[in-house]
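It would be a great kindness if you could assist me with a short task in structural biology. Thank you for your consideration; the sequence and its tokens are set out here.
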Amino acid sequence: MSHLDPNSEKARSLRGELYYAFGPEFVRDRRRCELACDRFNNAGDVPRRRLVELWRDINQDSRPLPPQLSDPDEDATLFEDDPWIQAPIRIDNGQNIRLGENVMINFNCVIVDTCILSIGSRTLVGPNVSFYTGTHPLDPAIRNGTRGPEAGKEIHIGDDCWIGGNAIILAGVTVGKGATVGAGSVVTKDVPAFHVVAGNPARIIRKIETSMDPNSKLDSQKRETQGSEVPMAQLAEELEKKH
């Protein structure tokens, strides 16, 4: 976006400054994305190539698709590293999303991409997850409905993360590499790499021992094979003891 006028409303929005979201350009961008999401969500039984094409339309990714192969299964292998997006999905803008290779986003994801949302390679996003990069002033006199200014902060999700179903990731959050966010969590602060967080607001439950972490004390005979329901159950037990 280096070609943007630094004084434009769009440039201000991307920098996380106050901007006015109901100017004509923003209204057109949201409408374009809304229609692109509708086409993706209503695509039906179409080849993998077509789904990738429809996603790139949402994301405004102008890279050309590779030449089509005659065999549908072989053609699909050309897109093995492209993100897997499960419909339906609802996105505010689309142009500010950056996805790595082999990302999977499950159904009913909601993305408000006022600012950049980046999701690293091999990260898995459960159903009904929401990413909100947009924010509003707390002072209602400034907020002023649709006539007042909005703002935003970038969200960055590292490589190899797992975001559990119904989680909400709020503006300004960075989730470190290899982290797990428990189902139903509301993440308001940064998550360290290779840690499990859960709750509302999300808090650290424990560290994940993995060969990916150069500082890990992993016992090669004890691998982290259980799902997040185990640390989530531990969290529930801790909360019960406190009450």
Q: What stands out?
A: DSSP finds six helices and 18 strands in the chain. The mean pLDDT is 91. The radius of gyration is 20 Å.
